[in-house]
């Protein structure tokens, strides 16, 4: 089977995004950590305000929130001898203290991940994972992920001073280490537009996943409380953003990737064998 990005033959590898795709439904850990960081200084920032720029790195997110007239005014009212630049440094330092516990608390598989990982293992399709967090933060989550059965062949982290090119180079190097011969036979799956752009850059099949992702940005409990119409509206908005960023395919739940791989690989007999083993 050949699809619109030139996949011919078998899928050779999968490149996962970590937060909001594999673990941490709605990518809540950074949101919670940032809220706690401001609360430490007596400033209560509504979750809705923080979620407006969900996906920014912690420092940029802190700066943007403090540029908000109400939040900035509250800070200067509480700390008249401090500058907003000083506020950014203090809040971000507190955020760095809060993010580790928040990441560990949120380190649970999203629905459908275990089924997908079991399938990849059965089909002997290797996978790596990427994150916008530094290695020191990811290291706190890795043992918890391993306990749940997630064992990437490599992890791409984002260190201070890294650029988008750094991430791309790491991914390409790791895929070469997996003996990938055609980047078009790699799937890049993530929940954000930047993940789709990464996939395009490495010439992979870019697959966006909607539910539990950052574009919706709600916890599983919050999402479950919505009406069907509200859920569908948020899903449609996320789909539009992922497609606008160049997604080749968009799926709602991450385990729907299994059907896509089956269609590409045209391995119905192997899939039937997997179903037999699983059942």
UniProtKB/TrEMBL annotation:
Gene3D superfamilies: HAD superfamily/HAD-like (3.40.50.1000), Putative phosphatase, domain 2 (1.10.150.240). GO terms for biological process: DNA repair. GO terms for cellular component: cytosol. GO terms for molecular function: phosphoglycolate phosphatase activity; transaminase activity. SUPFAM superfamilies: HAD-like (SSF56784). Keywords: Aminotransferase, Hydrolase, Pyruvate, Schiff base, Transferase. This is (2-aminoethyl)phosphonate--pyruvate aminotransferase. The lineage of its organism: Bacteria, Bacillati, Bacillota, Bacilli, Lactobacillales.
